[in-house]
Write a structure and sequence with these properties.
CATH class of the largest domain: Alpha Beta
Structural class: alpha+beta
Number of helices: 6
Largest sheet: 18 strands, mixed
Number of domains: 2
Helix content: 10-25%
Strand content: 35-45%
CATH topology of the largest domain: Diaminopimelate Epimerase, Chain A, domain 1
Shape: globular
Distance between the termini: 6 Å
CATH superfamily of the largest domain: Diaminopimelate Epimerase, Chain A, domain 1
Number of strands: 18
CATH architecture of the largest domain: Roll
Order of helices and strands: EEHEEEHEEEEHEEHHEEEHEEEE
Amino acid sequence: MGTNKPVKYAVVDAFTPIEFKGNPAAVCLLEEQKQDVWLQSLATEFNLSETCYLTPLSLSDSAHPRFHLRWFTPVTEVKLCGHATLAAAHYCFTYGLVKGNTVEFSTISGILTAKRVFEPKGSGSPESENVEVKQPYLIQLDFPAPAVTDCTMEETSLLSKILGHASVIDMKKTALDDLLVVLPSSEDVIDACLELEEIKKLSERGLIICAAGPSGSGFDFFSRFFAPNFGIDEDPVCGSAHCALAVYWSKKLGKCDLHAYAASPRSGTLKLQLDEQNDRVKLLGKAVTVMEGSILV
């Protein structure tokens, strides 16, 4: 056992009201900055899609509590992560680090804001019906809205090899360096078996597959996200990918308020609000703490 003061942590399932669903993230509370090698080693040890690090900041120019926030996959630091930011906000609210309903995070992608939004009765998501309400509020994240553009011929060719004989409705590239593929149905998204070794040949961050939600499901679209080059074969619920998905499906469906279903084996749900005028996306979801402890080294 080391002589350093123990670091408190919690594992939080994000974008779900139910334990062992959604996307797990480790949230570590640091009293002081640690070396990058230590941060990456711990993220590798947790081996979750994201491990994030919170450090309190004392700033007089902000009306809200502010924390420094960094995100690490098992193999690298990333510039933006939605589900770990939601998990970090959940940690701040749940453990009494923030007394109000707003917290700010200083990140490599700028200042990100998270708010508690209390739901009217009967407005919950489809998967939360008949589930004990453990968190009576949603957490709303305010993120940049990335541009979604056409793929190049080279990107289209690579995607065709990955998808094989699968039918494709559309192919796009996002400003977050992801490729986005639209399939004919939600069943195609759920049943897709993609070759991870082929996805690794992409120079982009990852691959999103999606389709319109089936009638009566309550969801506007289904999606899955793969990023094996970042140590994440399939990200259960990728918040940053949903920023681009909000841009694409808002234009496709002619609406700015969307309800999304992440169709990974763990599954998860998000409410999305696109602010076209300000190029922002609001991601709304719930979270559940499933584990807590101390890091002793």
